[in-house]
Amino acid sequence: MSSKKYALISVYDKTGIREFASELSKKGYEIISTGGTSEFLKKAGLKITDIADITGFPEILNGRVKTLHPKIHGGILAMREDKDHEAQLGEHGINPIDIVVCNLYPFEEAVEAEAATEDEIIENIDIGGVTLIRAAAKNYKYVTVITQPEDYNAVLEEIKQNNATSLETRRKLARKGFSRTYQYDEAIEKWFRKILGEPELLDLHYEKVVSLRYGENPHQSSAFFKNPLNRDSNVVNAKVLQGKQMSFNNYVDADSALELVKEFERPTAAIIKHNNPCGVASADTIEEAFDFAYQADTISAFGGVVALNRPCTKEIAEYIIKNKIFFEIIICPKFENSSLELLKKKENLRLLETGPLKIDMLRRDIKKVAGGILIQTKDTYQITEKDLKVVTRARPTDEQIRAMIFATKVVKHVMSNAVVFAKFVPSKTGGAAVEVTTGIGSGQTSRVDSVVIAAHKAKDRHDENYIKDSVMSSDAFFPFPDAAIEAVKAGASAIVQPGGSIRDEEVIKEVDKLGVAMVFTGKRFFRH
């Protein structure tokens, strides 16, 4: 049996592979590789042995068959301490392969692509890669299998220190390999069920991150699990830069806050308390957006969660410190170094950094009921001006239309029954007008009660004029005219709602009498 060390590299995701292969070469490994990976590494100046040179057989069927050969899988699966295996390797001129680096064709991404054809999706079902991973993982006593670029550095460090990986490391990497092929096959099976019109089989796989101190209340135990396949910018993948351990309620509120600010392109700040926004604002700068969001309801904001869709700046940190504001969490794409230095003075304040934000269009919502679960797609629909249908004699102004869209984006994130009052107010710094919530009513069994509460809080926190000339967005239709009447009485100058009630005409007539504009969106935004 050859004393030379061999590493087989065949990857679709080439992140970090050039550096990894280079270090293996320096440690004396001969690198064996397949078509695209081989070409990539050769361009980087590395000496690579092509698979065809090992097997004596070219890649065929447009790359469908590359590594499925005894000289490859014999080298991977041979037990090094078995004399019969050793003899057979020698008889057939097979060299043992010590490291297999493989990640798979992006089948999941192919399925998600709207324009992908069935043939394109089929071609993204990896055969050779899955077989390589399973073979190497099965023989973990002798073979190191790597399926994720994040493991490259740890493997290299062990090889540099000990000239080999440890059995424990190989065992852990084998588990990761089987986990990946299991998830991959599950995604393929799910796609086949979909195109065949068969019932979906739901298997949920969540990895425990940490046990929490308690659940919603101190007498409840709880733990935090994550979806190991999720790569989105969210509270799960955020880096905790500072602060106490996150609680059950912290995770819920931080998620609500972050998903809200993702709705907006303009710099936007939101403050969440008990899964509902206290204040939301969009402005030319994130500093001004934060100022207006906080000032919208300083009482409710106490102990809340702040979300920003821009980096947290020194000015925001100074604002918090100077005004001695108590927040539980700040979550945003990035913290400027100067802001971190200041916020360190609040040791218990949790700081979560997410990286660039984006909405996960394929996210699902899961709700538990006794004996089962309910699953729905995430409500990612975004209202635009094209959705608005004017149903009253009065027509909304351009500014009111923009305020309606802003308020409706917010109302999606308020517990039903929900109403949001919002308007444009002058910038304090001379920039464009600021969009800000002026009243939020949430979680009531009567929509009119939500309106009354929103108006009361606005006037209690500010004055009679604060809510005046706002637009009001409702998450669902008005079953009676009473909520619309109360909204106008409170100061609403225009109303946006889904429509669809059997009493729509009655509501429209009442709003016409009040002389304000009302538009229908045709989209309901319940959040339970």
Main sheet makeup? 12 strands, mixed
Instruction: Spell out the CATH superfamily of the largest domain.
Output: Methylglyoxal synthase-like domain
| Annotation field: number of helices | 19
**CATH T-level fold name of the largest domain:** Rossmann fold
Number of strands: 21
Helical coverage, percent range: 25-40%
Instruction: Catalogue the unreliable spans.
Output: none
CATH architecture of the largest domain: 3-Layer(aba) Sandwich
What best-fitting shape do the alpha-carbon axes yield?
A: elongated
Class of the largest domain in CATH? Alpha Beta
How many discrete domains? 3
Could you give the distance between the termini? 65 Å
Overall SS class: alpha/beta
Rg calc? 29 Å
Arithmetic mean pLDDT: 93
Q: What spatial order of strands do you see in the largest sheet?
A: 8-13-12-11-9-10-18-17-19-20-21-16
Strand content: 15-25%
SSE arrangement:
Elements (H helix, E strand, L loop, with lengths): L4 E6 L6 H10 L2 E5 L1 H9 L4 E3 H5 L14 H8 L5 H10 L6 E4 L4 H6 L5 H6 L4 H11 L5 E3 L5 H11 L4 H30 L10 E6 L9 E5 L12 E4 L5 H14 L6 E6 L2 E7 L3 H11 L1 H4 L2 E5 L5 H9 L4 E6 L4 H7 L6 E4 L10 E6 L2 E6 L11 E2 L7 H14 L7 E7 L8 E8 L5 H15 L8 E5 L7 H9 L1 E6 L6 H11 L2 E4 L8
Parallel strand pairs: 1-2, 1-4, 2-3, 4-5, 11-12, 12-13, 19-20, 20-21
Antiparallel strand pairs: 6-7, 8-13, 9-10, 9-11, 10-18, 14-15, 16-21, 17-18, 17-19
Helix pairs in contact: 8-10, 14-15, 17-18, 18-19
Structure commentary:
With about 525 residues, the chain is of the alpha/beta class. It folds into 3 domains: about 5-195, Methylglyoxal synthase-like domain (Rossmann fold), CATH 3.40.50.1380; about 230-355, 3-Layer(aba) Sandwich (Cytidine Deaminase, domain 2); about 380-520, AICAR transformylase, duplication domain (Cytidine Deaminase, domain 2, 3-Layer(aba) Sandwich), CATH 3.40.140.20. About 40% of the residues lie in helices and about 20% in strands. It contains 19 helices and 21 strands. The protein has a 12-stranded mixed β-sheet, with helices on both faces. Strands 3-2-1-4-5 form a 5-stranded parallel β-sheet, with helices on both faces. Strands 6-7 form a two-stranded antiparallel ribbon. The longest helix has 30 residues, at about 165-195. It is elongated, with a radius of gyration of 29 Å. The model has no long low-confidence stretch (mean pLDDT about 95).
